[in-house]
Amino acid sequence: MDKAVKNLSGSVVVIGLGRFGTGVAKSLVELGHDVLAIESDAETVQSLASVLPHVVQADATDLETLRQLAVPDFAHAVVSIGGNLEASVLTILNLSQLGLKDIWAKAIDPQHGRIAERVGAHHVVYPEADMGERVAHLVTGKMIDFIEFDDGFAIAKTRAPMETHNKPLSQSDVRKRHGITVVGIKRRHLDFIYAKADTEIKPGDHLIVAGPTRMVERFAALY
């Protein structure tokens, strides 16, 4: 990638273009980030050449290859090599040796994740497990959307329970009663409403709530 056109603070190298890696790379490009995508399979590279501005066929387990591609100049790296543990670990190790300060790694199981962290990954993600947990929360219909963070904190979109209807938040006092914070309200045909103490909840409103995961789950179950 031409260094003259690269925004270093927002530059990302994505290594491994399976379903997850391709999705990450495409989303980053759509968000306006400078992305270098690296994949060892020639057919995959060819198929994505019209979608990703900078995609190359290369072996990321080779340290010198990464250096020639100016990978050390990138601010972030995403290693999405899930099916080949050896290749994943060697790639993470190479990125660490090249001095990258923000390395994300896809792992297929906890053992893979622990090894990735030991050789230099700063963040480990488990796409399959995370998606399975998210779907489990959504399939019952209690939540419309759900995101859980590593520290046991969650944000969810859920239907307003009856006990909050036609009352300002200061009166229903969900923070004290349920241990969660209402961040905002989405009302049909209206723009997002930032929640305040005097914001009145209407039947049919969707609430964006945040708090400890278990408390968010319990609050959603009130509907």
Description:
- There is one protein chain.
- The protein has about 220 residues and is an alpha/beta fold.
- Helices cover about 35% and strands about 25% of the residues.
- The protein has nine helices and 13 strands.
- It has a six-stranded parallel sheet, with helices on both faces. A five-stranded antiparallel sheet has the order 7-8-13-10-11. A two-stranded antiparallel sheet has the order 9-12.
- Strand 7 and strand 8 form a beta hairpin.
- The longest helix has 13 residues, at about 85-95.
- One of its GO terms (biological process) is monoatomic ion transmembrane transport.
- This is Potassium channel family protein.
- Keywords: Ion channel, Ion transport, Transport.
